[in-house]
Amino acid sequence: MTERTEIAASRRWVVKVGSALLTNDGRGLDESMISTLVEQLVQLRGRGCEVVLVSSGAVAAGIVRLGWTVRPHLIHELQAAAAVGQSVLVQSYETAFKRYDIATAQVLLGHDDVTARDRYLNARGTLNTLLQLGVVPIINENDTVVTEEIRFGDNDTLAALVANLIDADALLLLTDQQGLYQEDPRQNPAAELVSLCDVNDPRLDAMAGEGGILGRGGMVTKLRAARLAARSGTETVIASGRVDNIVVSIAAGENVGTWLRTGKQPQNARKQWLASMVQIQGSVELDSGAVRVLCDSGRSLLAVGVRGVHGNFTRGDMVSCRDPNGREIARGLVNYSAEETRRIMGSPSREIEVILGYQVDEELIHRDNLVLV
């Protein structure tokens, strides 16, 4: 098979590592695995790539640290284990990355952070800023405060949502399996590995199996995650984290693991998603200069170009952008509420903090969250 040129061309990566890999199958944190993983992520950055790490293992590490022999079922005990294990896990990563003089940032995300529009923009902005600063974000579900009803259920899903959040080119799901097999290899040792398949191929559903003891996510959740990531055009590879130099090999386009292909461009997929959102919460009237900038230059919408505000929208809502004749020219996710926009409209970005007493963003609507209609 030819090299995976689309994977090799990826520049923004979300790498998710499962708890079975990190906790040495339940015997405490595997420091050598963490060191090896970090070394590979550093090499990936050396190729000019941006890396976000989504790490399982907090609950499992906490269980070991607390001396428990079995995983508890009560939610508060799981949250306690996560609280204990999270600090252990992040400290291990910080120590490993520090050897390469690379800063890390712990980011705990809950359900509302990626579904509520205002928190979505906050999380997206923070992660993009960390990447611009050369920091490696280490993300985990906020296990210590979420309840069973709203938790992601597994970090595969969380990794996919993060990929959506930052328009990742590639999602790498590292597990203790070589990839997705046509049959369960534990039942049939001769089962064939799926090297490449369209992410939405219905035959994949019958191939996916359930997870192991330590982690909540098996191939079922990985397939679901791959399909979720595909909505924003992210390519997904499932592979074994125990294979030498697996991250580097995949990033080089080598034919290892399972590639669940989407074939879309992340930015185009994101624009399609924005265009499909029909719940418009309000509108802003633009002057002719702002209309020209949006239509001809593909730039962000600044408050200085706004002449009128209609509706009662809040930060993160979808608003319509209209020309002086009332014709809709674009729509996007707004960074300020209607009340705030009325106060700052017509003003340059440098005056926003003076007017409001704070500045959330320089743009009223960032170009990445804006689509022409």
Structural class: alpha/beta
CATH architecture of the largest domain: 3-Layer(aba) Sandwich
Based on CA inertia axes, which overall geometry fits? globular
Biggest beta sheet attributes = 8 strands, mixed
What is the mean pLDDT? 86
Q: What's the total count of β strands?
A: 13
At the fourth CATH level, what is the homologous superfamily of the largest domain?
Answer: Acetylglutamate kinase-like
Strand numbers in spatial order across the main sheet: 3-4-2-1-5-7-8-6
Number of distinct helices: 15
Termini gap: 41 Å
- Poorly predicted regions are 211-217
The number of domains is 2
CATH fold-type name of the largest domain: Carbamate kinase
The ordered string of helix (H) and strand (E) elements is: HEHHEHHEHHEHEEHHEHEHEHEEEHHE
Question: What proportion of the residues is helical, as a percent range?
Answer: 25-40%
CATH C-level category of the largest domain: Alpha Beta
The radius of gyration is 22 Å
Write a structural description:
By secondary structure, the chain is α/β, with parallel strands linked by helices. It folds into 2 domains: 266 residues, Acetylglutamate kinase-like (Carbamate kinase), CATH 3.40.1160; 96 residues, PUA domain (Archaeosine Trna-guanine Transglycosylase, Chain: A, domain 4). The protein contains 15 helices and 13 strands. The strands form 2 sheets. Strands 3-4-2-1-5-7-8-6 form an 8-stranded mixed sheet, sandwiched between helices. Strands 10-9-11-12-13 form a 5-stranded mixed sheet, with helices on both faces. Helix 3 crosses helix 5 and helix 4 packs across helix 5. The protein starts with a helix and ends with a strand.
